[in-house]
Write a structure and sequence with these properties.
The structure holds two protein chains of two kinds. By secondary structure, chain A is α/β, with parallel strands linked by helices. Chain A has three domains: about 150 residues, FAD/NAD(P)-binding domain (3-Layer(bba) Sandwich); about 110 residues, 3-Layer(bba) Sandwich (FAD/NAD(P)-binding domain); about 70 residues, no CATH class. Chain A has eleven helices and 19 strands. The longest helix of chain A has 13 residues. Classes of the chains: A alpha/beta, B mainly beta. Bound molecules: flavin-adenine dinucleotide and FE2/S2 (inorganic) cluster. Flavin-adenine dinucleotide binds next to α1, β5, α2, α3 and α7 of chain A.
Chain lengths: ~375, ~80
């Protein structure tokens, strides 16, 4: 079957693209790694409409060796983690990470949770976990009050987002606060206080999943895929929508998806909101000094911070310490090294995920 | 409720639960790191591989991307 449009990623951006493409009369296929549609926000939600669109789930795209008139990349974002002592303990997860686990069956009923890190996602996670029965004892935002007050005043330009922010507001939200050290069942915060918790849900913002865009040689600018008003990348026939073109949330993702699918220009001042988010939730330097010599940076290979201090590039760290050589292929420690040392990420090689020989033989 | 076998011991898991969530609900960590530390899921979305387990004999499966099925055998032996 030859498709007019193939969409990779079935989050809000990819779903909007698929529906618009179908509506425009295109033979459309949507693919996602998850076992159903929804992406991060609607993970596990039933009844998502995709009439007339071919779909393939539980399918991870690791190369672009297929052709279609239009390929729309809608691979979304992941969380940025920063290492601090104890961040590898079993009760420490990502913020969206703990939420994703709760959406896939983790029982958080009655569990006490400290949420920490940065960005509007912390409040969304708090609200969702609370609905699932968790007891949110603290939401620590590293950004200072001054940035957040400016953010609040600017939100008047986006009334729907202001309403959302007000709905999500939580009495335990505390700016200017960040984690120093996690220990079993508790976390020491930058105010010198220790907070007991069953879970510490912690992440410092979102990063676009650029692997496929890089593989396709799409131009990346300031960390995001460069697109025109029609969401077209620098490569003919390849489009990028949603978090890939700037971390901006649901409305942006849907507007861009719809434009790419329909073949129209994206409407709205989404990039202004992206810039406002970036400015507001800029990470403070103290966060980059939390790792101690024995704090693990690369979780796949258990490489401590002390082993990377002699290196001068991502490549050198890989060759000398094996940092980034494990199964996640540097998806977690690459951005950490970039934050701590300013080293740009290495290029991507195929296959995007390692396939161990053993599993090939056994499957 | 699906019956699953984890490290040789039978357990029950809830419907529509991923392997990673089922393990956490049972208080079983998903793997032991190369230096011997117990690890649990981090990202919950298929990126970090901290949830990797062997499922029905196939190694290196990301538990957060696979729902439990009746009779499934899971082993937390991945390093
Ligand atoms: C963990 C997490 C939780 C979040 N929770 C919320 C929330 O509760 N509320 C909120 O407003 N915002 C949330 N966000 C922010 C969210 O990124 C945006 O609001 C919005 O969902 C972005 O939509 P998207 O379609 O661009 O990406 P996503 O929703 O991230 O969808 C991308 C999809 O692409 C798939 N994919 C990626 N790579 C591949 C590949 N190689 N092969 C196949 N499929 C692939 C992924 O599995 C995913 O389903 C969350 C973000 C993260 C990272
Ligand atoms: S928890 Fe990160 S890949 Fe499953």
């Amino acid at each position: 079957m030859r498709y007019d449009a193939i969409i990779i990623g079935a989050g809000p951006a990819g779903l909007a693209a698929a529906r618009a493409a179908k509506h425009a009369g295109k033979q459309t296929l949507i693919i996602d790694d998850n076992h159903g549609p929804g992406g991060q926000i609607w993970r596990g939600r039933d009844g998502i409409e995709l009439k007339g669109v071919d779909r393939r789930f539980s399918t991870q795209i690791t190369d672009l060796n297929f052709s279609a008139t239009q390929i729309i990349l809608a691979t979304g974002a992941r969380e940025l983690f920063l290492p601090f002592p104890g961040w590898t303990l079993p009760h420490v997860l990502g913020a969206g990470g703990l939420q994703a686990m709760a959406k896939q069956g983790l029982n958080v009923q009655g569990k006490s949770v400290v949420i920490a890190g940065s960005g509007p996602l912390l409040l969304a996670v708090a609200s969702n976990l609370k609905k699932a029965g968790a007891d949110i004892t603290l939401i620590a935002e590293q950004a200072p009050w001054s940035s957040l007050l400016h953010f609040g005043s600017q939100l008047l330009r986006w009334p729907s987002k202001l309403t959302q922010a007000l709905q999500l507001f939580n009495i335990n939200y505390t700016p200017n606060l960040w984690p120093i050290e996690a220990k079993p069942g508790e976390v020491l915060m930058s105010n010198g206080k220790t907070y007991p918790c069953n879970y510490l849900a912690c992440a410092f913002g979102l990063l676009p999943n650029l692997e496929l865009a890089r593989l396709a040689n799409c131009k990346i600018e300031n960390g995001f895929v460069k697109v025109n008003r029609h969401q077209q990348t620098s490569v003919q026939g390849i489009y990028a929508v949603g978090e890939l073109t700037g971390i901006g949330g649901l409305e942006k993702a849907e507007a861009e998806g719809e434009a790419a699918g329909a073949g129209t220009a994206t409407l709205g001042n989404h990039q202004d909101f992206v810039k406002l988010l970036t400015r507001t939730f800029k990470l403070r330097d103290e966060l980059k000094q939390l790792a101690q010599p024995d704090t693990i940076l690369c979780r796949c290979e258990d490489i401590p911070f002390s082993r990377t201090t002699q290196c001068s590039s991502m490549r050198e760290a890989k060759l000398q310490t094996r940092c980034g050589m494990g199964p996640c292929q540097g998806r977690i420690c690459g951005p950490i090294l970039e934050q701590l040392y300013g080293w740009p990420s290495d290029s991507v090689r195929q296959p995007l995920y390692p396939v161990p020989l053993k599993s090939l033989i056994q499957s | 409720m699906p019956h699953i076998v984890i490290n040789g011991t039978p357990h029950q898991a809830d419907e529509k639960t991923t392997v990673a969530a089922a393990l956490m609900n049972l208080g079983i960590t998903s793997r032991t790191s190369v230096s011997g530390q117990p690890r649990n899921p981090l990202c919950g979305m298929g990126i970090c591989f901290e949830c990797r387990v062997t499922i029905d004999g196939i190694a290196y499966q990301r538990g957060c991307q696979v729902e439990v099925r009746e009779g499934m055998e899971v082993s937390t032996d991945a390093i």
